[in-house]
Amino acid sequence: MRRFNKRLKDCLTGITFLLLSASAQAAEGVAMKMTPDADVARLPGVAFNQTLADGLPSAIRDRKTIKVATDLTPPISFQAEDGKLIGIDADIAAALGVILGVDVQMTNVGAGAAIVPAVLSKRFDMTISGINDDAELEKQVDVIDYMYDATTIMTIKGNPLGIRNMEDLCGKTVAVPVGTFQARLVEAASAKCSTPIKIMSIPKMPDVLQAVRTGRADATVNGYATSVYTTANQTGKGVGLEALPDIRLAVGYLGMLTAKDNPELRDTVIASLQHMVDSGAYRAIMEKWGLGPLAVKTVKFNDAASMPVN
Question: Same domain, yes or no, for 30 and 110?
């Protein structure tokens, strides 16, 4: 019976993975070649580097293209009115393309839950997306820790319900993106409530924010960087939103993902990012999007254990 249960679990896991992969493909946008804007192109260190380029896997060197998956979470990555991908990740991706002498093709895979399958399915070489690093994620993929982040709560502007902490979410409706670290955080908080949190799981981050704007949800638990940026740069229809800046939970890293059997790509990206850090280009990009305080000084990988959730 134990063996049967294991086989059944493995089968269901495989089916779930296939369904996530199929769903991701259905929601995908088109691959976009990332080219640096003038302000990024002139940053120090954003120039071809033969030594770094030589570290790329032979398959990528031959086709001269890195296929990158992302999802839309401003200011990490989002679309301008003309459809162009912009944000921190778009600028970093464009700079990496110049440094490594390859085309970086970025594709919006539609939802955060599709990010890990994008790498595991081998359809993409890596992801550059604001995904939280944690120990469970590191079991599946290698995580390049390229910026800090935390988690906070967002409400309607003015915080009319007077929410001050996670305990105040008990009995309320909270919108979260499907399959994310924040979703797991809310589930854990709900388990401690006498009246559980009503969790509204939504695939896409823009729709999560809109659920709060329109009153379908009382709040969302979201990445600190995204929340602060959204507060300062209101987008979408409806009432404005407000991050609760005094709430900083689960301080940790955001990471880029590569497959565990592709250490050459992982190490080359780490070296290229560190090159950008040392030249000042990386911090300039972070400051451009108002997130200089979240910049790292050393690019590491699988380092979640050094940033324990609190």
Answer: yes
What was the pLDDT predicted at 87? 95
Are 160 and 241 a contacting pair, CB within 8 Å?
A: no
Q: Is 267 helix (H, G, I), strand (E, B) or coil?
A: helix
On whether the CB atoms of residues 170 and 187 are closer than 8 A, the answer is no
Low-confidence ranges of the chain (pLDDT < 70): 1-27, 234-239, 308-310
φ, ψ for residue 90, nearest 5 deg? -65, -40
The overall pTM is greater than 0.70: yes
Are 142 and 23 contained in the same domain?
yes
6 lies in the same domain as 111? yes
Per the structure block, which two tokens stand in for 64? 């001269």
**C-alpha atoms less than 13 angstroms from C-alpha of 180 in its C-beta half-sphere:** 29
CATH label of the domain that carries residue 289: 3.40.190.10
Task: Let me know whether 217 and 138 are in one domain.
Answer: no
The pLDDT value given to residue 293: 86
pLDDT of 251: 85
How many residues does the structure list for the chain?
A: 310
What is the model's pLDDT at position 198?
98
Identify whether the C-beta of residue 203 lies closer than 8 Å to the C-beta of residue 137. Answer: no
Residues 177 and 67 reside in one and the same domain: no
DSSP H helices in 104-155: 115-120, 135-140
Let me know: does 77 contact 128? Beta carbons within 8 Å. Answer: yes
Task: Provide the domain count of the chain.
Answer: 2
134 in the same domain as 180: no
- For residues 242 and 119, state if they share a domain: no
Residue of 92, 44, 87 lying closest to 273 (CA atoms): 92
Reduced 3-state DSSP string for 14-73: HHHHHHHHHHHHHHCCCCEECCCCHHHHCCCCCCCCHHHHCCCCHHHHHHCEEEEEECCE
Specify whether 129 is located in the same domain as 165: no
DSSP state for residue 218 in the 8-state scheme = S
Provide the domain limits for residue 101.
2-148+254-306
